Amino acid sequence: MEASGTSNMKFAMNGCIQIGTLDGANVEIREEVGEENFFLFGAQAHEIAGLRKERADGKFVPDERFEEVKEFVRSGAFGSYNYDDLIGSLEGNEGFGRADYFLVGKDFPSYIECQEKVDEAYRDQKRWTTMSILNTAGSYKFSSDRTIHEYAKDIWNIEAVEIA
């Protein structure tokens, strides 16, 4: 149920400054590029079980802005497409948020706050460019060159051959 982390790794290798939760490949990316070059939002892994229980028990109170976004989607502003499945995945059939497996509603306020930090960093083009360069430089671990070199040494027990 998770998107492939290799896409995020490719983003980092190409200088993308990511905004994300601390799960999947993002954990490793953030370690490699530096936490100061990654915009983090959302619940931490150790909080998830408790938050899901809170949601299942009907104790989750949604942020008003999240409710406004859902209403805007329902309004037809994005066309006549039926968004019931999307909204249902966030609300469930038995009360608000019970089907929100990925805790989108819970993470929404944190995302908004984090996006404000992204905006601030972007306005400082020197800082933004530095962060972008450091993302590329810090993502060497994810390159196929590193992987092939490591496999050749540690798994295949072969040495590189110089081609004239």
Automatic annotation (TrEMBL):
GO BP terms, alphabetized: carbohydrate metabolic process
Keyword Transferase: yes
EC number: 2.4.1.1
Database matches in Pfam families: Phosphorylase
Top-tier EC class: transferase
Catalytic activity: [(1->4)-alpha-D-glucosyl](n) + phosphate = [(1->4)-alpha-D-glucosyl](n-1) + alpha-D-glucose 1-phosphate
InterPro entries membership: Glyco_trans_35 (IPR000811), Pyridoxal_P_attach_site (IPR035090)
Cell inner membrane in keyword set: no
Cofactor(s) listed in the protein's UniProt record: pyridoxal 5'-phosphate
GO MF entries: glycogen phosphorylase activity
Gene3D superfamilies xref list: Glycogen Phosphorylase B
Described purpose of this protein according to its UniProt entry: Allosteric enzyme that catalyzes the rate-limiting step in glycogen catabolism, the phosphorolytic cleavage of glycogen to produce glucose-1-phosphate, and plays a central role in maintaining cellular and organismal glucose homeostasis.
Family note: Belongs to the glycogen phosphorylase family.
Protein name per its UniProtKB record: Alpha-1,4 glucan phosphorylase
